[in-house]
Specification:
Elements: E1 6-11, E2 16-23, E3 26-34, H1 36-40, H2 47-69, E4 78-84, H3 88-105, E5 109-113, H4 114-120, H5 122-126, E6 133-138, E7 143-150, E8 154-160, H6 166-176, H7 183-191, H8 218-233, H9 240-266, E9 270-274, H10 281-294, E10 297-299, H11 303-306, H12 310-322, H13 361-366, H14 368-379
Parallel strand pairs: 1-4, 4-5, 6-9, 9-10
Antiparallel strand pairs: 1-2, 2-3, 6-7, 7-8
The structure holds 5'-O-[(R)-(carboxyoxy)(hydroxy)phosphoryl]adenosine (KG4) and zinc ion.
5'-O-[(R)-(carboxyoxy)(hydroxy)phosphoryl]adenosine binds at residues 14, 139-141, 167-168, 170-171, 182-185, 188, 275-277, 279-280, 307-308.
Length: 380
């Protein structure tokens, strides 16, 4: 237990400043500062607002995580950070902070993939992931089906959304219904009072010639908006509960159908679901039923671990350390469109900084720019 890697993870890809600390599969701290309320009045995440909020929250959130975990930064075996995908300005704040701390403390730095982290976090809840793992990731920014033979080095995209992400569809429909932002939780609540069969909304990409594992939610969103508009134009009241339930049913039906199909086709007997939409009560219920019918074991982390957080980054970082994966080099940069196949960003052979304590003058020169960026944060 005590010899498992102790890793701090930093996540700033969107609007949550997350700092988590884990020892192997054990969660020690999960500090999150969200700027979601600052975005609410815009109906979506504003990148500049998010970056600024990360900058302000970063150091206090790191300090809170260290305090919650009851450890000193010098005890750490490594520092992991989301290198992408995500909003570039937002990612940059996390990457700069991680570099500054890793460099100052003499610890190895691991730039990791946000999507792989969403999968890996389940180890903190349900123990080691079986290999391969089948994952359905659904959030405001992504909707993907991923097959992961090795979460630290081999993640294969089977399909993803060709337009809106699932959470984005929830957010947009909620906006049309004047329910506020983010839309997922409030639609989930309204749907409980409604009839999921009241309105037959379209199931995107489920025709015989459609790609089996890809998703599309844009047509559904438009269909819902048109249906509401027609009601309003006719001077009739919009049945919010029925619309919510019927819309949600269409999303959840497609997600679970395709995920179960992916498991069966690939001979995988379990499914993990992650991302903010995994908090959806109907998704959990329908996935549970359909997986049981198909003899598939379902793994869904608790909601706080499903939404963006630092613990998921720490979990993947710890796995990188445990499996001896190469650390990132000091010139690690944020990559807003880091492909999911890049589970982490290893340094070039010969340019690795290995396990800290090897800082050359050369390195120090290379990285003046990030020291500039983060000095303020570190010492204020
Ligand atoms: O993972 P997350 O916190 O951030 C990223 O987008 O990466 O996911 C946020 C998304 C939002 O679109 C939100 O509406 C959705 O997750 N969400 C939900 C629920 N809770 C959050 N969608 C459906 N049902 C929910 N209960
Ligand atoms: Zn995410």
């Amino acid at each position: 237990m005590a010899d498992e890697p102790l890793v701090l993870g930093i996540e700033t890809s969107c609007d949550e400043t997350g700092v988590g600390i884990v020892r192997g599969h054990t969660l020690l701290a999960d500090a999150v500062a969200s700027s979601v309320e600052e975005h609410a009045r815009y109906g979506g995440v504003v990148p500049e607002v998010a970056s600024r909020a990360h900058l302000e929250a970063m150091v206090p959130t790191i300090q809170r995580a260290l305090k919650d975990a009851g450890i000193a930064a010098s005890d750490l075996d490594g520092i992991a950070v989301t290198a992408g995908p995500g909003l570039s300005g937002a990612l940059l704040v996390g990457v700069s902070a991680a570099k500054a701390y890793a460099y100052a403390l003499g610890k190895p730095l691991y730039g990791v993939n946000h999507l792989a982290s969403h999968i890996c976090v389940d180890q903190l809840e349900h123990g080691a992931l079986p290999e391969p793992t089948m994952a359905l990731l659904v959030s405001g920014g992504h909707s993907s089906l991923l097959l992961a033979p090795d979460i630290t080095s081999d993640v294969r995209p089977l399909g993803s959304t060709i337009d809106d992400a699932a959470g984005e569809a929830f957010d947009k429909v909620a906006r049309v219904l004047n329910l506020g932002f983010p839309g997922g939780p409030v639609i989930d609540r309204w749907a409980r009072e409604g009839d999921p069969g009241a309105i037959a909304f379209p199931r995107g990409l489920t025709g015989p010639r459609d790609p089996i594992y890809d998703f599309s939610f844009s047509g559904l969103k438009t269909a819902v908006a048109r249906w509401i508009e027609a009601k309003r134009n006719a001077g009739e009241e919009v049945p919010v509960a029925d619309v919510s339930a019927s819309f949600q049913e269409a999303v959840v039906d497609v997600l679970t159908r395709k995920a179960v199909r992916a498991c069966k086709d690939n001979g995988v007997d379990h499914l993990m679901i992650g991302g903010g939409v995994a908090a959806n009560s109907r998704l959990r219920a329908m996935a549970g039923r359909r997986c049981e019918d198909a003899g598939i074991r379902l793994r869904v982390p608790r909601p706080k671990l499903c939404t963006d957080n630092g613990a998921m980054v720490a979990a993947l970082g710890a796995e990188m350390v445990a499996r001896g994966r190469a650390a990132s080099s000091w010139d690690l940069s944020a990559d807003s469109s880091l492909p999911v196949t890049h589970t982490h960003v290893p340094g070039e052979p010969g340019h690795e900084h290995g396990h800290g304590h090897e800082h050359s003058r050369e390195h120090a020169h290379d990285h003046d720019h990030f020291h500039e960026l983060s000095k303020e944060n570190l010492y204020s």
